[in-house]
Amino acid sequence: MTAESEARPGITVDAVRELLSDPKIFAELPPGLDDDAELALDSLGLVWFLHQLELRYGLEIEPAEAFLAEFTSIRRITDYLVDAHES
């Protein structure tokens, strides 16, 4: 682990939920939404979400990558981002 990655905040389910709660991504993300509940990010929301990830965590993820179709729940998004964040 590098000093840079140690200085960045960790990606957690709560952090992903907070990012998804941005009105530009989900105008009304239910606060009690289960971590495994199905989500559908539209293309503009996805681009804004990825932009926020880059600003907050330094993660650069291209919106055209195939795995993004798997961004279907808070838990699946978090699991992917934790793997990406640690590499």
TrEMBL record:
Residue stretches in coiled coil: none
Residue ranges occupied by any Carrier domain in the UniProt entry: 3-85
Domain of life: Bacteria
Protein name from the UniProt record: Carrier domain-containing protein
Organism: Streptomyces mordarskii
Biological classification of the source: Bacteria, Bacillati, Actinomycetota, Actinomycetes, Kitasatosporales
